[in-house]
Structure of MCE family protein:
Amino acid sequence: MKISKEVKVGLLAIVSGIVLYLGFNFLKGVDFFSPNNSYYAVYDNIDGLTVSNPVTLNGLAVGRVKEITILQNRNNKLLVTLDIDRKIALSDSTTAMLASSGVLGGKYINLIVGPVTRVKESDDTLRSAKEQGIAEIIQAKATPLAQNLDSAIHNINQLVKQFQGVTQTIDATLLSMKKTSSSLNNTLDSNDDAIKGIMSNLNTLSTTLNDSRTGIKPIMRNLNNFTDTLQRMQLAKAVDNANASIASLNRTLNQINEGQGTLGKLAKNDSLYTNLNNAAEDLDSLFIDVKANPGRYIRFSVFGGGKDKKKKDKK
């Protein structure tokens, strides 16, 4: 039986298509010659996970993502179907962790298998979790950094405002100093002749004071001589007065010792002292008697002069 060229070409095309399909799926991780189990995991967000992304266990590819379905009746959650090698026994605590494969963010499913107490059957639903990606880590680190940066910028703005205020104060101070300097220059310019006259007079006075004949030195020398003379005169006079006072005191003491004068008589003769003492005692007795018997010494009339008038009539 002779096969025509058309049939040969058709068979070759069919075989090529089948080989191409099998090779393409093999490159995507689909193994048609090994039996697989299907498992499910539900995620809120898959961050770009696509069909045929790998499923790994401790870094070894054990399956692929077979299908992704939107569950609109469950708030648009995503149902991911995992095609996993049947030889892999998954426990009841197995978690399908959505992870990133690198900085560029290639996604895959990493199986975290706990102790096998009960083996999951095909078409069971696995626990789902999502690994924190680099973007989330950067965002978590960047948020406090951004807050600190914002606070630093705010502080810098405050410092700039304060510096602007200080700058304005400095400008005002410099302007005031400039005005003061200008006013001082104007004053000096307007009184230039007077200042020159004052300086000339000061120079003349300085020259005069420095002159050895008519300057300050002979004046100070004469003043020192006068002061010395005055001190010597006053000291001599004070000594003379002291000597005279001492001599007078000595004469007085000699007179007292010799019994001359009142003090001398008092010092040498005690009769005067005795008489004075007796007179004082008599006077004291008289005062006591007057106080006790005033009628003996003092007489008076209520109507004044009545007794004297009777005496005149008798005469």
